[in-house]
Design goal:
This protein is 34% helix and 20% strand. It has 187 residues and is an alpha+beta fold. It has a 4-stranded antiparallel β-sheet, with helices on one face. A two-stranded parallel sheet has the order 5-6. The two termini are 16 Å apart.
Length: 187
């Protein structure tokens, strides 16, 4: 049975950048286990929309709700349930992959046992590169390290902005499989 309150809802969002209106009066809702794919030309406002939904940018008009409550009034709770993968991967180039993940786990209060650093590195097939500095990784391996960061957070809501960037066919299949599993768990 579906919940009466959507997990995520956007109501009448509008976005203006400079003099240009990128979108207006945009609304959608997602229940547990549902995904939304945003497509469009370069410069159409896809990243702006995702940043608004993630609470990283304010809309010109409209509002975003998480479990029926405005993310503006429940920001900390919302961000505690969010894993955002954007153009900037959120990794320190001078730290190793493992060091990055341990720092992220510490910042977010992720218990060592849920799902552990070693487990997420194995899931994204980076266990053999764990002790290398991020700067020594290929672009595709950096993207996988960012996916590991996202998995480590064990968040209910994933917002992925161009998650296939720099990935080979195996990496694309991995992202699709991870997303499918996340949706199957009600994410």
């Amino acid at each position: 049975m579906q919940s009466a309150v959507p997990l995520l809802e956007a109501r009448r969002l509008s976005c203006v950048r400079g003099e240009a209106s990128l979108f207006e009066d945009l609304s959608f809702s997602l229940n547990a286990g549902e995904a939304l794919q945003v497509a469009g030309a370069n410069g159409a406002g896809k990243t702006s929309l995702l940043r608004i939904v993630a609470g990283l940018t304010l809309p010109e008009e409209g509002e975003v709700f998480w479990r029926g409550e405005s993310i503006a009034t429940r920001r900390a709770e919302f961000h505690g349930q969010l894993a955002y993968l954007g153009h900037h991967l959120g990794l320190k180039a001078e730290l190793t992959v493992v060091e990055n993940l341990r720092v992220i786990a510490g910042i977010h209060g992720v218990p060592a046992a849920s799902p552990g650093v070693d487990e997420v590195l194995d899931r994204v097939r980076l266990d053999h590169r764990a002790d290398l500095p991020v700067r020594a990784l290929s672009a595709g391996q950096r993207q996988r390290a960012a996916l590991a960061r996202m998995l480590l957070l064990n968040a209910a809501l994933w917002i992925l902005d161009e998650p296939f960037t720099a990935l080979d066919a195996a990496g694309v299949a991995l992202v699709k499989a991870l997303a499918d599993a996340h949706l199957d768990r009600g994410g």
